[in-house]
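Standup, Tuesday
Yesterday: got the pipeline producing structure tokens again.
Today: sanity-check two examples.
Blockers: none.

Example 1:
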Amino acid sequence: MVQQFAGPADVMRRALELAARGLGSVEPNPPVGAVLVDDELRCLGEGWHQRYGGPHAEVHALQAAGDAARGATLYVTLEPCCHYGKTPPCSQAVIAAGVRRVVAAMADPAPHVGGKGFAELRAAGIEVTVGLEETAARLLTAPFVCLMLDRRPWVHGKWAMTLDGKIATRTGHSQWISSAASRAVVHQLRGRMDAVLIGIGTALADDPLLTARPPGPRTPARIVVDSQLRLPPAGQLAKSVDMGPVIVVTTSAAGAKRADLLAEAGVEVLRLAAGSDGRPDLTALLAELGRRRMTNLLVEGGSAIHGAFRDANLIDEVHAFIAPKLVGGASAPSPIGGTGASKISQTSSLQHVELQTLDGDVYLHGVTRIPG
């Protein structure tokens, strides 16, 4: 039976649903979905960008519709590209198929597109409408937009804490605060990240692997911020470089001998300028990761590293897993250390907050901004 949509917004929501299927597989490209319908809003074909370097969403939808695309309306979550990259321009494919109208959720902010795709479509006589379900599309493409405009990855802050806001007891014990269901979601997050980052304190205390289990569509690099190069070459991270890259971020003050030992183990030692605290400058780190076209960075460290990112205003999205447990203790650490805000008016308020229950835990997810 041919699917018929109740209204234009329903068509675009379907396109957004399709686009989300590409998360983790298409980066550094954006996730995009497309649906072709007739005048009665009956589905003629649909598709999504499935993998980096593969056909874009519009091409999949046009192929699914075949000759029925002529005279149809294309709903797409992002402006069709108009340049040659890994694939030919989608704007020309839409024109060649005889599509009569294009409804897009948002314009592509990338400098090499930036409205040029719409201009090509309009010049060919195709009616173009922009802005339907735009907020949802901007949320979905936020990491891509951040990479295009800010030249750095989108930073996800993740932590598990008790109901009284503790990430460990006063003795440092933390396994396990969250439920198995919450930990499974964390592994899913890791599996669509370009990199997972912790501080040296977490690395020494937990000796983690930081891999996604089971593996996801991406194999994230494991990054340790380590000013004094204290990461042990015999630890799990250094011994598992065959499971994914390991990068230790340090400064020029770190000793060459320890750097050589880590390098011999296959660990990349990345030296960056130091900030005022003597630790690697996080802005410089994000710029380097952006140069490497990393789109999503998951910060999983403890209180100190999250505090450093928060103080630098570099947390874009939050994944907080809140367990119904009470730890207490004035010295038990909270998720975010650092200097912190002096007034509530200086705090970062989450937008578009979603709540989910996972085996008794509450998974709270939201963003601090929408770029662009």
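Example 2:
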Amino acid sequence: MKVAIADDDPIVCSSLSTILTATGTADVIWTANDGQSALDCFQAVGGRPDVLLLDVQMPGMDGLEAAERIIALDPAARVLFLTTFADKEYISRALALGAKGYVIKQDVASVVPALQAVMAGQTVLGAEAVANLSLGKQEEQTRKDPSKPVPRRFQTLTDRECEIVTLVADGLDNQAIASRLCLSEGTVRNHISAILAKTNLANRTQLAVEWLSSQES
């Protein structure tokens, strides 16, 4: 794949380029150190990568504004945020803009699989990003209307399945969900497989993103 990197730290750009090239994951076609440069490079002839790795906070035009303009230019653009900021507001805005994922820099090992997942059409959220979105939802629960109808995608789920989806969105793994609900891990896996089939989602990350987004609307 062809990848571009926009980060205000040239060392980060260089290190990521080395990792992606050395592992045979991608060819890095350009790097930029601010949002305006990223936008300019994207608009240049041959400047549109398969995936753009984009930092949030950069001088001048930040990554969120750059992403908004890039996606407006090319709605099919795949933007994957890679940043040190796991702020709920940043994550929510990035996803609302149409970004394909949000990964925290500390988890460098997740960059390659995240790029591969985005290329496969998936939406990617790092564990810390999912946890922060979940905490935000918990804080808002008292302000939500409990009588709000269930979104159409989730209307066919049973009460137990909705309970499991909520725990997945809270960042719990199968073992923790099984312990919380006094079920076996196998039963939890079967429930999640059934939920994914009913909702036509590819994996638990997409499930968490869709569920959390539905609670905002």
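Quick observation on example 2: The chain has two domains: 2-135, 159-216. Residues 134-147 have pLDDT under 50 and may be disordered.
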